[in-house]
Specification:
Blueprint lengths: L2 H12 L11 E7 L4 E5 L12 H11 L5 E8 L9 H8 L6 E5 L5 E5 H4 L12
Parallel strand pairs: 3-4
Antiparallel strand pairs: 1-2, 1-3, 4-5
């Protein structure tokens, strides 16, 4: 699967975003090492702390399907800036791989690529818990 294919899947997922408060729908497409792609979108809530981002939505969907080995994730928004994962999403993604590739796209289709370790250096993980 090409970068563009994965970004296109994130753009499709964005169409399902529920964003009545921010009016900023986001979609994510999480590519697993087995070749499958699991998508997610943001789901806002009037109690903002209950809102879930697209990236965490995709991770939860993948884990609920028995998948825990992720190669990369594409994130797409309708904004003019590259859509970067928030801190909470970076932490959740790091649970599975600090070397995950992250494709951050903007509405015009341009994107940048990072390793999660670049976006979340010195992450907190299993080794911090003695495991």
């Amino acid at each position: 699967m090409t970068d563009r294919d994965l970004i296109n899947k994130a753009e499709e997922a964005r169409k399902n975003g529920y964003a009545p408060y921010s009016r900023f729908p986001v979609g994510a497409a999480l590519e697993c090492y087995d070749g499958s792609v699991i998508t997610g979108c943001n789901v806002e809530n009037a109690s903002l702390g209950c809102t879930i981002c697209a990236e965490r939505s995709a991770v939860c969907a993948a884990v609920s399907q028995g998948k825990q080995s992720f190669r990369r994730i594409a994130i797409s928004s309708s904004g003019n800036e590259y859509c970067m994962p928030c801190g909470a999403c970076r932490q959740v993604l790091s649970e599975f791989s600090t070397e995950l590739e992250i494709l951050c796209a903007r509405e015009d289709g341009r994107y940048v690529s990072y390793r999660l370790s670049e976006l979340l250096p010195h992450s907190f993980g299993r080794s911090n818990l003695g495991g």
